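Batch manifest, entry 17 of 40.
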Amino acid sequence: MIYLLPLLLLCLFAFCFVKKVDAYGSFAEGAKQALPLVKSLLPYLACMLVAVELAKASGVYNLLDLLFSPFLQMVGIPAELSQLVILKPFSGSGSLAMLNNLLLTHGTDSYVGRCACVVYGTSETVFYIATIYFGGTSIKKLGWALWAGLFCSFLSCAVGCLLCRVF
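Output type: structure tokens
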């Protein structure tokens, strides 16, 4: 398995050699063409990252935890995971740190630990993805796409916790 990437690169260079393609020049040209895309996406990404950090620092996540924790418990998601379920759509790195904390506190083989891993693996950073994908296009109304992403992320958390309880 450790030789997969070097083997892939070797095959790529062999293909370029056989087809007489300048691999370095092609890579440089592709990077050059990607710069305008990076330039157009950077403000949206910076805005999203600043908003996530402001929400963390201001305690908004704690308020959302208080509001949604009873509902999450009703659908079978343990109370300890409410902050993870709420944070995951906004921040992948923040939710990874929270997952680490949950695993250190409750253990990896506990019900909460297994559910936390499933929640982390099945949910997605919906707002980050919406920012990146829709920021690079002319689509400005996220409406239904955002709600559908949030609903599917929540549904995957609930079904994942149910499956952890069964198995």
